[in-house]
Hints:
Layout: H1 2-17, H2 22-34, H3 41-66, H4 68-88, H5 92-120, H6 123-149, H7 154-174, E1 185-186, E2 199-200, H8 212-217, H9 221-248, H10 254-275, H11 279-282, H12 284-303, H13 310-323, H14 326-332, H15 334-338, H16 340-372, H17 377-398
Antiparallel strand pairs: 1-2
Helix pairs in contact: 1-6, 1-7, 2-6, 3-4, 3-5, 3-16, 4-5, 4-7, 5-16, 6-7, 6-10, 6-14, 9-10, 9-13, 9-16, 9-17, 10-13, 12-13, 12-14, 12-17
Amino acid sequence: MYSLLLAIIYVAFISLGLPDALVGAGWPVMHHDLDVPIAFAGIITMIIASGTILSSLASERVTRRFGVGLVTAVSVGMTAAALIGFSLSGSFWMLCLWAIPYGLGAGAVDAALNNYVAVHYAARHMNWLHACWGLGASISPFIMSYTLASGSSWPTAYRVVGVIQVVLTFVLLVSIPLWGKVNPIVPAGETGDGAVGTEDKPARRASAHVPLARALRIPGVVLILVAFFAYCGLESTAILWASTYLVSDRGLDPAVAAAFASLFLIGITGGRFAAGFFADRVGDRSMIRGGLVTVAIGVGLLALPVETDVLALAGLVIAGLGCAPIYPAIIHSTPVNFGRDNSQAIVGIQMAAAYAGSTLAPPLFGALSAWSGLWMLPLFLAVLTALGLVMSERLNQLVPQR
């Protein structure tokens, strides 16, 4: 049961990553076909982000009522319906309409799956699963590219990914009986540095609903929310603005800048695969600390005022590698830091904080750069990195190791 369900979850994470880059990859063509300004992409992403935040906050109550298996299946089904809806949309307002179930489904499944893996599986799987998400997110632009290059239109790409999600929905519905048969893992004695042990214990009866106000009053929760907001903000800002910074401020050729900007994402995905091999031994706290310190080194290299661009390009890659273990480790450490009874509620709030950081930080930097210039990208990233490091270290002092 353990291995079969884990295989299904791996496939689910790959599939969940597929839709995330479709809007960005297809928008240069979509906005022409829909006859709307290119800036309208922000409206679509804001609707999706709003839905994900709302469903993340509600995920704890919904998951306790219906179970993680059913919530995951229904949420993926909502995403599949939204993607099929996108493929049938002939106007911008229809895209906005279908973006609502898209966001609601994405947030619910993200919170439910992440908490389930944090409670039931070791840290290495959390890293590898998020690497699989990155793999899925990297594949979708190629689906859009192949569709357009073959003479088809952008709705075909949405339809292809939508059909994949429909198949996954069916698999998840069939697998619902498996979700309650995998025992949670709990710390087995001293595991060092907050890492979760590997001793299986019988699952405890589901505890009562944890309201948002009570969850926020748990010592350390606000600290980890700020840290998660900062991390996701720096990641999304680097993804969106790194290439523009390298071209506009450092004078790089656009093709070279684009290649190294993509290496930031490759560094995250590859770094998560690599982190999985030692995450259980090192522990979540050290993974978070080491990741943020590595990001700081990369950002420092990016900011060095030297004539050669080699250090700046290397810094971008190093920053991507540093980002790799942070998100999985924050999620995986939640049951250890705050208890399994509270973890679903807190993971849902963490997902909301993550989406808020990813949504708000890039346009904030855009507004600041319009006022002061793109030169401040390393400074902006350094501030977010320092904020994440300070908040996570304060949490470590507040919550004892288990």
